[in-house]
Amino acid sequence: MGEIMNDRRVMVVDDDAFVREIIKAKLTSKGLEVIEAANGQEALNKAQDERPQLIVLDIMMPGMSGFDVCERLRANPQTVNVPILFLTSRGDREDRERAMRLGALDFFMKPFSPQKLSEKVLEIIYNQ
Q: What residues in the chain have per-residue pLDDT under 70?
């Protein structure tokens, strides 16, 4: 199973280094390569250069929000089809609906279960 997954890159975008580390530890233990980005601009640059197979994207970040990042990813022909899972500490219906309108595949509330998040990531990657 590890061999099949070695070329699978997931980008984790969150301004909280602790959250990125938790997700990275869980996903690397499942055989995935994890690219980290601490803000929206870094995420856009790395998405272009690294070509992740999936992006886990925090909504609430200083500067450029996750929604802004998602809109720019969707406008770029090279990243338009990259699956996105949103993370947020705000669970209002408006955010969830906006995430889904932007093409998110799922929406995880903080605090989240790293196990459930990794299961969803693997499900999406295996079904691409």
A: 1-7
